[in-house]
Amino acid sequence: MNHALPVVASLIAMAVVFWPRYGLWARWQLAQELARRIRREDALKHLIKSEANGRVATLNSLAGALQISAANAASLLEELEERELVTFEDGRPLLRPAGRAMALHVVRAHRLWESYLAEQTGVPELEWHPRAEEREHLLTPEEADALAARLGHPTRDPHGDVIPPPHGDLEGDPGQSLNTAAPQTPVLITHIEDEPDTVYRQLVALGLRPGMRAFVIEKTPSRVRFWVDGNEQILAPILAQNVFVRPLPEFRTEDLVEEEFLSGLKPQARTRVIGLSPACRGQERRRLLDLGFVPGTVVEVEMISPAGDPTAYRVRGTIVALRREQANLIRVSSKEASDR
Length: 340
Hints:
Blueprint: H1 4-18, H2 24-52, H3 59-66, H4 70-82, E1 86-89, E2 92-95, H5 97-120, H6 128-135, H7 141-150, E3 176-177, E4 187-192, H8 197-205, E5 213-220, E6 223-228, E7 231-235, H9 237-240, E8 243-247, H10 253-258, E9 260-261, E10 270-276, H11 282-290, E11 298-304, E12 311-315, E13 318-322, H12 324-327, E14 330-332, H13 334-337
């Protein structure tokens, strides 16, 4: 009987490894095929985004976007050509109809999932993009349609990118770079680029979001100094390149400077809420509205903490503590702020 134990153990081990569908070997093969599919879809996504933004996708741009070697990028393009997803013209990869449809779906799934994370979860902003990068490859077209319906068919994601329809064209990044904005010209932030991650983290740390109003004060080779939603900020040109804006001809720079935000009020000041910044969204927006920060509500600065943050406000007979970045999302009346 003891002699049979090694044989039984060997059979069990082989079953664990080679059992159809559920064995380790089958699972490894599925994981490998998923990884290859993700790599193909990421390549197609790079091609369609380059095309939408008027850039020429190249072997080197693909290798850089996917962080792979040029040799691996060349092999990947060959695979896409064999699968009739891309073709080549003068050495440039171009999407074929099947590849375009696949790329459009992946982009749509990504932006819908980011919208879901921003609007209906408490997931931190810095995690929206990496989580959507994973989920975009798992959502079927039917699931993406259902998610869009659940979200009320949003047209833009939380970074300001247009969410493409299921069967349409992909629009390019909205607006122009903050680097190219003319000084003393009011602009609206339309898009915050979420790649590369190191740059995006710095922009998020400054609280920059689509929907904020701004104007460039000064540009030098080493910095861009600008006014945005009640604060002066400074960015290196390489960071400002990832902030996109469009002109606001209906505003003057004086209008933006004179705007009042709850964060700028002194102790015992009394004001009236005009509304929440468009940059405030999702659970954060719902929480502030639930607390009573709706247009017309009178707010009084009750007390500022010794460290300067948070600040306590009296709203409809209740004391509410807000961090500075939260209070900076609440627009208030400058006239009411000076009245007692």
